[in-house]
Specification:
Blueprint lengths: L9 H7 L21 H14 L13 H14 L1 H9 L7 E11 L20 E3 L2 E10 L5 E8 L8 H5 L8 E3 L7 H9 L3 E3 L14 H4 L3 H10 L3 H4 E2 L4 H17 L1
Parallel strand pairs: 1-5, 1-7, 5-6
Antiparallel strand pairs: 1-3, 2-3, 3-4
Helix pairs in contact: 2-3, 2-10, 4-10
């Protein structure tokens, strides 16, 4: 298959192809082979992630959009995208871990479900902030700036609210967690130390018992900002078009996996 811009190269494809379900039924099992091979499908999903276009605008070279969507939905339900991301992020540099979040604008096409009493969308990580409706992507990156853990929340949620859940996705024993002042609460710091980790998180100016931080180490926090810049090259991440959290998060995992493959 001819390699096009934004599609997986042969070496990148070879790293993940065995993580996808087989295209043909196993020997002795009933069923017919898939009409489109997995590489074509994954490149179609990647094209959608990069372009932000509607499913119906998928170029014909990737097959019928209904077939690509059906495979995307099936893989999403089976946790295939999570499995690929976990496998690619397994060999992480755990010395320093940077934590932060970024906001993604929510397109009007992502609306349409009932509201919660707080004003957010029921069953959706969508909330109202100063800039309008947003979804937050919370992330931890390793010492090389590669994504290690990801989580969604409404855009009006404070970063500290989801810090422990996000940190719980990573083995932080022996690691140094780098974060801004939003992560300086006692509960978060105690969680890190209880998991035998350390932290480089500056105290707020009004903290009655400030602690020392290594400013040189703290500068490494820029790595998580660099990751957010890379993931927002994917227009379907930069702006949220998907109503369901599961669909939007699947595209986040696809984008993060491609970053890990580079």
């Amino acid at each position: 298959m001819e390699e096009r811009r934004y599609e997986l190269t042969s070496s990148e494809w070879n790293r993940i192809k065995r993580m996808l379900p087989p295209e043909h039924p196993k020997s002795g099992q009933r069923g017919r082979p898939a009409k489109y091979d997995n590489r074509r499908i994954i490149n179609g999903i990647l094209w959608l992630a990069r372009s932000g276009a509607p499913w119906r605008d998928l170029p014909e070279r990737y097959g019928k959009w209904q077939a690509v969507y059906a495979r995307f939905r099936l893989w999403k339900q089976r946790g295939i995208f999570e499995a690929i991301f976990a496998a690619l992020s397994a060999d992480a540099d755990m010395e320093n871990l940077s934590i932060d979040s970024t906001s993604c604008k929510v397109h009007q096409s992502a609306n349409g479900r009932g509201k919660t009493p707080e004003g957010g969308k029921k069953g959706q990580a969508i909330g109202m902030s100063r800039g309008g409706k947003n979804t937050k992507i919370h992330a931890i990156v390793d010492g090389l700036g590669n994504p290690l853990a990801l989580l969604l929340s409404p855009g009006n949620d404070h970063d500290s609210r989801h810090a422990v859940s996000l940190l719980g996705q990573a083995e932080i024993r022996g690691s140094n967690v780098i974060g801004d002042k939003a992560y300086g609460s006692q509960a978060i710091r105690e969680y890190i130390t209880s998991r035998e980790g350390s932290y480089t998180i500056p105290p707020k100016s009004d903290n009655p018992e400030p602690w020392f931080i290594d400013e040189h180490v703290y500068k490494e926090r820029h790595l998580v900002e660099c990751f957010f810049q890379k993931i927002k090259w994917f227009r379907r991440i930069f702006t949220r078009y998907d109503k369901l959290d599961a669909s939007f998060f699947a595209f986040v995992l696809v984008a993060a996996s491609v970053i890990l493959l580079k």
